[in-house]
């Protein structure tokens, strides 16, 4: 079944919210004790005790890969009907105001807990975060994904600016192919973990430049772009073949990242569960897109709830790690059991994310759009005046 036109897909808001939740559970329930050098462990003072919760929690990081696929799909839909200026404004207002609010809250959380971090260091991390500096350290380690997202946006913006919109799909096929070939090479080299090729691949694997050039995660953005082409436009065997290839590449990337978690924590992991989680999420993705017309007929309150969950996702992702960890640690210090502290921290982060998505974020987005509209009007007026002057 083929979706007749690109439009809002409520089911993707539910998938986005699910991805944010499993990342949150991963950080608060597993990373908080398994990786003592991590920010969530520092923020929670290492008091979490979830050593028996190892069935699902260790694999929630695969939510990030789900985010990247959704971005590939949503951005190409946005680019299809947008000018370069409108695309830039839409991405700026989507990313920046939320970071301004959430980074400020995270800074306050750091200042309120005894984390043995100098205020000047925190200020530097805060400035890097609100300025979207591509290199850390950031006020919260989850901000690493923003630079990756922005690099994808810049690629699409460049194609819009040069009026080469039609090249989005073939170029993303190239990006996805390069990423897939890298992970194939990593997997093959990994058969001998003491070999020089594996050491080379390992050095590249988690370097920041490999992230920003989309070598690491380009396969997921490409998968999202091709899902749009396959589900929204005309399906073809060629697109299906590309999707199968990128599904393999995505699983290889997840298996590679799984090995990193093993190295950092010393806990045994099988890559099968995170791969299954991601593939299951992709099956759900296809289901909600192909049945979007039916989903749109749900009661208004249900559609509004799905939309609110989608809007909460961004602040929830930005706040859960440090702020959620600080809250959980504080509740344990105040005498709550670890499971109770977790539930209370999750509830408070959820409530805070709902408030941000409801009050300060839309207000800042509205002001930002108004500023860009004013600048555009002035630029157009100046352009017309210059044209009249030259004609005269």
TrEMBL record:
Alphabetically ordered keywords of this record: Acyltransferase, Membrane, Transferase, Transmembrane, Transmembrane helix
MF annotations from Gene Ontology: acyltransferase activity
All residue ranges annotated as the Acyltransferase domain in the record: 10-357
Transmembrane intervals: 12-34, 59-80, 92-113, 142-161, 168-189, 209-227, 239-256, 276-293, 314-332, 338-356
Stored InterPro entries: Acyl_transf_3_dom, Acyltransferase_3
Domain of life: Bacteria
A Pfam family hit: Acyl_transf_3
UniProt xrefs under PANTHER family: ACETYLTRANSFERASE, ACYL_TRANSF_3 DOMAIN-CONTAINING PROTEIN
Name recorded for this polypeptide: Acyltransferase
Source species: Steroidobacter gossypii
